[in-house]
């Protein structure tokens, strides 16, 4: 049974079907329901936070409650601060599911307004690098394995979602080897910042995490 109006989930958009399954188990129709808003953001900014706030203040179209399922590899500090008031006093008929790879990196003030929702682990079908294979490889091989993550699209942008998902997978494998986690935490903290030096951050991970 879901408790509370605001839920934080560790993962990527791959867990959206699980959330819809939970809603269905609660007796909520999920097929073609206009009161279920699902959106994936490459980066959640302050304008997205304002739009979400405005949507949450509208009345349900079909039922008695609205559900906002948001998936993003990261939120800017401005966006998190803009969301605080909405999440602190959410409309009674609005429920939020915020999916990020690492909820612990969000602002403590935002985390304090949410329940952590733990779902069964779902593999990201878009994972381009196997974390165990990466950790078993030598340094030069690791640097070569990073190349798909460093490729840019036609808009000259990298897929930050895939990069954060890869870093989270490394963290899961290295859970019992804390000496290798600092570089991962640092990369994940800064990887989505505007102007972040993605290549050096990932190369530092490749050079510093232990071989397993």
Helices and strands, in order, run as EHEHEHEHEHHHHHH
Low-confidence stretches: 122-126
Beta-strand share of residues: 5-15%
CATH class of the largest domain: Alpha Beta
Major sheet size, sense and barrel closure = 5 strands, parallel
First-residue to last-residue Cα separation:
39 Å
Number of domains: 2
User: Strand tally, please?
Assistant: 5
Structural class label: alpha/beta
How confident overall, as mean pLDDT?
Answer: 84
Helix content: 40-55%
Task: From the alpha carbons, calculate the radius of gyration and give it in angstroms.
Answer: 18 Å
General shape: elongated
* CATH third-level topology of the largest domain: Rossmann fold
Identify the strand order in the major beta sheet: 2-3-4-1-5
The tally of helices reads 10
CATH architecture of the largest domain: 3-Layer(aba) Sandwich
**CATH homologous superfamily heading of the largest domain:** P-loop containing nucleotide triphosphate hydrolases
Protein architecture, described:
This protein is of the alpha/beta class and 212 residues long. The protein has 2 domains: 6-116, 3-Layer(aba) Sandwich (Rossmann fold), CATH 3.40.50; 131-208. 42% of the residues lie in helices and 12% in strands. The protein has 10 helices and 5 strands, in the order E-H-E-H-E-H-E-H-E-H-H-H-H-H-H. A 5-stranded parallel sheet has the order 2-3-4-1-5, with no helix packed on it. Strand 3 (66-71), helix 3 and strand 4 (94-100) form a beta-alpha-beta unit. Helix 2 (46-56) runs parallel beside helix 3 (77-88), helix 8 (160-173) packs antiparallel against helix 9 and helix 9 runs antiparallel to helix 10. The longest helix has 14 residues, at 160-173.
């Amino acid at each position: 049974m879901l408790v509370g109006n605001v839920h934080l989930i560790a993962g990527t958009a791959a867990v959206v079907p699980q959330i819809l399954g939970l809603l269905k188990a609660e007796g909520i129709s999920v097929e073609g329901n206009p009161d279920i808003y699902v959106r994936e953001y490459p980066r959640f900014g302050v304008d997205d936070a304002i739009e979400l706030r405005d949507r949450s203040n509208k009345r349900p179209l079909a039922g008695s409650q609205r559900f906002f399922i948001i998936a993003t590899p990261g939120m800017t500090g401005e966006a998190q601060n803009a969301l605080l008031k909405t999440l602190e006093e959410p409309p009674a008929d609005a429920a939020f599911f915020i999916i990020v790879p690492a909820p612990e990196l969000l602002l403590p003030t935002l985390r304090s307004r949410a329940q952590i929702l733990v779902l069964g682990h779902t593999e990201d079908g878009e994972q381009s690098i196997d974390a165990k294979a990466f950790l078993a490889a030598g340094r030069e091989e690791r640097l070569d394995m990073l190349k798909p993550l460093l490729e840019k699209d036609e808009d000259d942008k990298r897929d930050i979602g895939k990069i954060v998902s890869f870093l989270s997978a490394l963290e899961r494998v290295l859970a019992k080897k804390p000496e290798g986690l600092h570089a991962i935490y640092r990369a994940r903290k800064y990887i989505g910042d505007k102007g972040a030096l993605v290549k050096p951050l990932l190369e530092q991970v490749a050079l510093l995490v232990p071989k397993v």
